[in-house]
Design a protein that fits this description.
It is built from eleven helices and twelve strands. It has about 375 residues and is of the alpha+beta class.
């Protein structure tokens, strides 16, 4: 195929420029880019064809450089703006300039030009779309964070406001029981079961309020710990005894394995809170099957395990288990705020420990709590 036929058929903008800066050959695609017929290029000076626009002068300068130095220029971007054309009149090209040699001497330069206008336009639209999506996501994140902040603030205020009437109700109930017991013992005995129901419900409400307070403290980073020397084995035994009636009502046989006294430095109230949450879950989800509690020392770590043989946890539930307001089971069937395990993990980690779970749906669950027996001494700065 002759060079002229090749130039006429190739879709890429191509041109050969002689040492005198005249067009020797031009492809139809290049002619279209320049806005003149192919024949109007041949033998003419580049300056005559391209005019005196800044982009045209840049092309001419690059061709001169290639002819003079014999070094190629690859991947040069050219932006051509039609006078008064605005954005629509702007074209973007990518050009490469190569020397052509004969017997080692540069005799001409070749230009290869690709029109990048549509590609750049698509890329700009894609980038603009990505920027809009990013802005939408950032706005949604800000709104979510604000909603969470407002929720936590509401919980804090609501919990504090609820404590006063609950305390008042409990005191008035106790006062009423004493007065009736003195004035009418028979009536007091008759009302005792109902008073116990009221006492249990008030205790339950008090527990919920304390849970909400803990959530607000955690959100504000104000969870306080007051560690002191404590026999963890004794505390586990006490809590197991306190839950014995609940396990009995649920039909779950409870076995306890303690490795003697296990001394350490922990916050008794927070440890009790963790044990209450773990034992409550075992009662609730144990499905009336046996529950095993074990405690052992491993070096400077206390290891507590609470194992049930109940409904277990699905793979999806495992991923959400320790999240705030998350439940691994149906709220309708089991109730609760979905905060117990979230608070438990926060307390355990604040004491330098960890809590993990092994479970599968229908195969029960084992919660494993690890707590350092004594606070770690602060690290001393390294000597220099």
């Amino acid at each position: 195929m002759a060079l002229s036929e090749l130039m006429a058929s190739v879709p890429l903008g191509m041109a050969i420029i002689g040492l005198d800066l005249r067009y020797v050959e031009v492809s139809e695609a290049m002619a279209a880019m320049n806005g003149l017929p192919r024949e109007a290029h041949l033998g003419r000076l580049m300056a005559e064809v391209l005019g005196n626009e800044p982009s045209a002068r840049d092309v001419l300068r690059r061709v001169r450089r290639v002819l003079e130095t014999g070094e190629p220029l690859v991947g040069v971007e050219i932006v051509h703006r039609e006078p008064g054309g605005g954005v629509e009149g702007t074209r973007v090209y990518r050009a490469s300039y190569h020397p052509l040699r004969r017997e080692g001497e540069v005799v001409a330069a070749s230009i290869y030009v690709e029109d990048m206008t549509e590609r750049r336009r698509v890329e700009a639209q894609r980038d603009a779309g990505a920027a809009r999506e990013r802005a939408v996501r950032e706005q949604a994140l800000r709104e979510t964070q604000e909603a969470v902040r407002a929720r936590d603030e509401f919980l804090s205020v609501a919990a504090h406001e609820l404590r006063t009437p609950l305390t008042s109700l409990r005191l008035h109930l106790q006062l009423l029981q004493r007065q009736v017991g003195v004035a009418q013992p028979a009536l007091s005995a008759e009302l005792a079961p109902r008073a116990q129901v009221l006492e249990r419900q008030l205790s339950r409400l008090g527990s919920l309020v304390n849970t909400l307070l803990d959530v607000s403290r955690l959100a504000a980073g104000k969870l306080s710990l007051e560690p002191r020397e404590l026999d963890l084995a004794q505390m586990v035994r006490q809590m197991v005894d306190a839950f014995a009636e609940e396990f009995s009502r649920a039909g779950s046989a409870l076995s306890v394995h303690l490795d003697g006294p296990l001394m350490g430095s922990w916050d008794p109230l927070r440890v009790e809170q963790v044990l209450v949450n773990l034992l409550s879950n075992a009662v609730k989800y144990g499905a009336g099957r046996p529950v095993e509690v074990s405690l052992a020392g491993e070096g400077h770590t206390a290891v507590l395990a609470v194992k049930d043989h109940g409904i277990g946890i699905s793979e999806d539930g495992m991923a959400r288990l320790f999240g705030k307001f998350e439940r691994a089971v149906s709220e309708r069937h089991y109730g609760g705020l979905g905060l117990g395990l979230y608070i438990t993990r926060q307390i355990v980690e604040a004491m330098g420990g960890s809590i993990t779970v092994r479970s599968a749906q229908g195969q029960g669950s084992t919660f494993i709590l690890r707590l350092p027996t004594w606070p770690q001494p602060p690290r001393q700065p390294e000597a220099r």
